[in-house]
Amino acid sequence: MPSGAVVEERRGRYPSGTPSLGADAATLAAIRIRCMGCGTPHPANVAVTVCPRCGGLLDVEIPLDTRIRPEEIGQGLPSALRASGVWRYRALLPAIPDSAVVTRAEGNTPLYWDDRLAGYAGLTGGLGVKHEGHNPTASFKDRGMTVGVSHAKAVGARIVACASTGNTSASLASYAATAGIPALVLIPEGKISGGKLAQTIAYGARVVQVEGNFDQALTLLRELTAAYDAYLVNSVNPFRLQGQKTIVIELLEQLGWRVPDAIALPGGNLGNTSAFGMALADLLRVGLIDRLPKLVTVQAAGAAPFAPYFASGWQTYAAVSPETMATAIKIGNPASTPRARRAIEQTEGIVTTVSDDEIEDAKAIIDRVGIGCEPASAASLAGVKRLVREGVLGPDSRVVGVLTGHLLKDTEAVIGYHLRDRDGAARGQANRPLTVPARLDALERVLADALHG
């Protein structure tokens, strides 16, 4: 059969938007989804990720008509949901049937406080870091994926798909494998770390390398999922962002619901900026917090369309050709820009940029204190340091930064920083292995240096 005939046959067999054949369809249909552009409502019992009428981004509307007391969180849930740092916040999430929930006990990530990080940033008010690299596949993406893949399972999706710079692909592959649903992943050829690609392959996803960057891969995939019955799980998916809300919910619970002055996070496709704004609005509405912190979104200078948009007073937006060593945020046309703008406006937040050198140096500091993170994560600390230096954040501010991925997500970056020169010299925080003769006196000298260094 000619390839064109195969395409047409598949198009007819698997039309986009096939109604759910799964259980609890009535429960799904009751979930409210609304376009943030034209306001059109849409049912949740079909796979829809953008508004069919205007192409706008969609929001899941959570009915939050009563106050929630801290002691009520997680009560009355099955043990599997209670064990999840996402699903234990069930009252703030969409009502996906329990039978469809796909969970790996994600979330429950630590919040670290370290005076050395605060000192590096120039803060006396304290700096905490919420480490999302402690999720099952070692990045924050698992929080969104548990909700996105659960919705896919609930609507009877035959295949789930994403475009990715690495972390999304690893997470989707894992959760799809858990759910028993095939996964299709598009990645920019040669432009993701080996660790992330290894995860994706190991979990059994069908990996397709696209000759282009992430933005081109996502555009191509959105065209495919608009025509065929493949469930898109990128951050345009409104259910995925509902899971990512729980980063902030859990963070504030760890703080005893005491709101910091600012929450800083890396900005790539801007899903987290969007989700954090949603979370804060929800928490204020149910009375768990009494004010909003500033959201501080930090982009790599070589991949920063959102920062100049913010600087222009939201008057001028232009996509860029992204270039940064922080591959997780190497995105030139973020899909969640309208949602992210709403979040920054609601919280009177800030958008800034940092250079790759600033990211690498901040990462080396985070690594050196024993916490560790992938490069993009360190944009949080680098951005806070810049804003304190510029006087935008006061030195007495209490700030929490989000680390989005684990140190081992990008070991190539670690080796490059510590073993390769910059401008003919070792980096500022370089920690190079030593080679010594196999003699005790040589090792004794190293010991003496270490004790006095």
TrEMBL record:
Keywords: Amino-acid biosynthesis, Lyase, Pyridoxal phosphate, Threonine biosynthesis. GO terms for biological process: isoleucine biosynthetic process; L-serine catabolic process; L-threonine catabolic process; threonine biosynthetic process. Pathway: Amino-acid biosynthesis; L-threonine biosynthesis; L-threonine from L-aspartate: step 5/5. InterPro entries: Ser/Thr_Dehydratase, Ser/Thr_deHydtase_PyrdxlP-BS, Thr_synthase-like, TrpB-like_PALP, TrpB-like_PALP_sf. It comes from the Bacteria. Gene3D superfamilies: 3.40.50.1100. It holds the Pfam family PALP. The modification N6-(pyridoxal phosphate)lysine is found at K141. It catalyses: O-phospho-L-homoserine + H2O = L-threonine + phosphate. The keyword Transmembrane helix does not apply. GO terms for molecular function: L-serine ammonia-lyase activity; pyridoxal phosphate binding; threonine deaminase activity; threonine synthase activity. Residues 102-405 form the Tryptophan synthase beta chain-like PALP domain. It is an enzyme of class 4 (lyase). Belongs to the threonine synthase family. NCBIfam families: thrC (TIGR00260). This is Threonine synthase. The lineage of its organism: Bacteria, Pseudomonadati, Thermomicrobiota, Thermomicrobia, Thermomicrobiales.
